């Protein structure tokens, strides 16, 4: 089975190259083979997953620095995130900013996917592997989580400090440097990767909010979602189809027909990206459930029906799996209101 391909912003790739150069070592042969020393002017570069993993591992071996990924993440500034960062900065509330990052994270990288989960008084902002990272999982996670944590700190202006970061691997040799760069408690050997922040911070106003600029940035993110590469991820294509037809989600067979594929071929292509029709539908339902509950215009029974659940109890069980609390409790905690079940 061929390795999956994905798009990565040239801005990110340049930071990886520059970090190698800062160590005063020659660029590894793998960098030269995929011409990372002579990047095109395009905003995104299509990469083969195996070649990417090899290049990152070669960079770590060449520099002899286990903290390579962490240092790449530190180098990325807010403008490294393009329109996604710009949109997040101009949101009215943290809840809106987190929602924007969730929805449009694909415009920056398909290596991981992000989602929020409410657990007691905290929101867990989770980073989950979307492609097989293998031996470079730790440096990639450190780079991505640090750069998004820095974006979070920027848009909240220190008003909602992150109490801890969770890692699903053992402490690395540079664990003390990780703690220093993140500036909060590190928890290793956990079941999830990401950071926590208080639920109470979700609806406090953000000082840089600008609705006009936000609308323009969102439109740009939407254009990027449609045109960031010649071959967008099949999971993204399927999610878009499901969102466009959310009044009656098409089955795998119906979706495959829309793509002029057999159901078996669509299933295989999703499998190559580490996902499935069921997983993509689950993510779309999760996203829409959060939007409906935050809007507060529908009852929980109506939301369940809108999402294709014939039984409200099934929707409730799914929501508890997503967020670790019931839809009624989520709505009460986030909006201060409780719709009838």
TrEMBL record:
Q: Which SUPFAM superfamilies match?
A: Homeodomain-like
UniProt-listed SMART domains: HTH_ARAC (SM00342)
Among the Pfam families in the record, one is: Arabinose_bd
Q: Which GO terms describe its molecular function?
A: DNA-binding transcription factor activity; transcription cis-regulatory region binding
Q: Which residues form the HTH araC/xylS-type domain?
A: 236-333
- What InterPro entries does this protein's entry cite? AraC-type_N (IPR032687), Homeodomain-like_sf (IPR009057), HTH_AraC (IPR018060)
Identify the GO cellular component terms for this protein: cytosol
The UniProt keyword set, sorted, is: DNA-binding, Transcription, Transcription regulation
Question: What name does UniProt use for this protein?
Answer: AraC family transcriptional regulator
């Amino acid at each position: 089975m061929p390795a999956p391909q994905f798009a990565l912003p040239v801005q990110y790739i340049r930071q990886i190259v520059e970090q190698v150069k800062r160590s005063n070592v020659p660029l590894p042969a793998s960098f030269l083979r995929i011409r990372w020393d002579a990047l095109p002017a395009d905003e995104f570069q299509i990469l083969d997953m195996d070649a990417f993993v090899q290049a990152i591992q070669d960079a770590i071996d060449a520099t002899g620095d286990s903290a390579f990924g962490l240092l790449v993440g530190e180098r990325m500034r807010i403008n490294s995130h393009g329109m996604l960062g710009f949109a997040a900065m101009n949101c009215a509330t943290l809840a809106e900013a987190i929602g924007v990052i969730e929805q449009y994270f694909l415009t920056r990288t398909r290596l991981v996917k992000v989602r929020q989960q409410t657990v007691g008084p905290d929101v867990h902002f989770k980073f989950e592997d979307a492609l097989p990272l293998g031996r470079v999982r730790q440096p990639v996670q450190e780079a991505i989580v640090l750069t998004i944590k820095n974006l979070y700190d920027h848009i909240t202006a220190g008003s909602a400090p992150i109490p801890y970061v969770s890692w699903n691997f053992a402490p690395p040799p540079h664990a003390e440097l990780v703690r220093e760069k993140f500036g909060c408690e590190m928890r290793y050997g956990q079941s999830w990767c990401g950071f926590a922040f208080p639920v109470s911070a979700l609806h406090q106003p953000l000082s840089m909010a600008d609705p006009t600029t936000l609308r323009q940035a969102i439109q740009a993110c939407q254009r990027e979602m449609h045109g960031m590469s010649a071959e967008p991820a099949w999971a993204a294509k399927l999610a878009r189809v499901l969102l466009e037809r959310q009044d009656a989600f098409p089955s795998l067979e119906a979706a495959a027909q829309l793509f002029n594929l057999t159901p078996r071929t669509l299933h295989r292509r999703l499998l190559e990206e580490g996902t499935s029709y069921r997983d993509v539908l689950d993510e779309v339902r999760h996203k829409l459930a959060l939007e409906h509950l935050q809007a507060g215009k529908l009852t929980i029974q109506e939301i369940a029906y809108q999402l294709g659940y014939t039984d409200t109890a099934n929707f409730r069980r799914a929501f508890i799996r997503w967020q670790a609390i019931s839809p009624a409790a989520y709505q009460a905690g986030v909006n201060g209101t409780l719709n009838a079940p």
